[in-house]
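Appendix B: a complete holo record

For completeness, this appendix reproduces one full record from the ligand-bound portion of the collection. The bound molecule is NAP. The inputs are the chain sequence and the ligand SMILES; the output is the full three-dimensional arrangement of the complex, encoded as structure tokens. No fields have been trimmed.
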Amino acid sequence: MALPKVAVIAAGSMGAAVGRRLTTAGLTVFTNLDGRSPATRSRAQEAGLKDVSLSHIAQHADWVLSILPPKDAYNFAKAFGDTHASSATNRPLNFADCNAVNPETVKRVSSLFAGTSIKFIDAGIIGGPPQDDYDPTFYASSAPADADVLNEFVRLSKYGLKIKALKGEGADIGDASALKMSYAGIAKGVIGLYSTMILAAHASSPATAQALLEELTISQPYLAQHLIRGVPSMLPKAYRWVAEMEEISNFVGNGLAATRSGAQIGDATKGEPVHEGHIHYGFARLYENVARSLEEGKGGDVTEVKVLKDFVEQAKKVLPRKE
Ligand SMILES: NC(=O)c1ccc[n+]([C@@H]2O[C@H](COP(=O)([O-])OP(=O)(O)OC[C@H]3O[C@@H](n4cnc5c(N)ncnc54)[C@H](OP(=O)(O)O)[C@@H]3O)[C@@H](O)[C@H]2O)c1
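The structure of the chain with NAP bound, as generated:
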């Protein structure tokens, strides 16, 4: 059987590593570098990706994996759908949106392909870019009528990707993204909670932060261990987590909270409804401040980043004595 031809858009840190996995397994992997930065071009080259036009992809690829900044996911899908529609063959192919977008966004993306020969898979990647001894998991869901396409997506596992289908009662487009939002909302939300409370304690007084540290290491040592690892690794990624926290807010607001109260996320300062959807909106603001502090803190002033780093360093010293 002929090997599938896959297009990966784009060769960012995740897309290039995914592309490299597929080329290492012997697949032809296309990408499109129009307007892309030198860093992306060099990652694409190192991963062995072929730079071709979108029209070439529409005419030759069996799969398109969209792995982009989440804010560009819809516009790319639209541009690709338009190119495919105007291509001479209008041949069947499959499109997997692998971005960290909320389920409403992924449903809008999928609706772009309704009535066309493009079949759609909703995918969410949990974990970092694939490395020699490490695989993130692609969770995937489809419309019930496209169960065969979902099975075909899972078969790409043969070429070095770890893919799990989300099947069972009610599974549909939007569910893989909902799973990704729920997982990230816990994993990255917990780090946001640690950081927020450390900063709030320090804002009261440095002595309060010190007392918080002592108490945590005595009565919740597992939380202290977790924050020692999680807070420093968040710092360089804080700028990326801002948009992701906002997507999670919309997911919670449009799903859980809205079903209960009928309310979309409101602006609390204007007296609009406040509910669970605001939790991650708050973390988005935290990560925005951390990213800004990282940028401004190079002069050595007491910035939010310094407060967090000092807390972690202190916790590292105190913890072994408490165990
Ligand atoms: N990295 C991870 O650990 C990770 C984990 C799980 C999920 N993901 C998901 O994977 C997706 C990509 O993340 P990433 O970390 O790979 O991002 P990234 O490293 O910032 O790379 C983004 C790539 O997209 C390109 N790009 C930007 N705007 C574009 C556009 N309008 N059209 C086509 N290409 C465009 C960028 O090119 P330029 O260099 O020219 O800007 C760059 O190559 C996101 O949805 C993210 O949520 C990432």
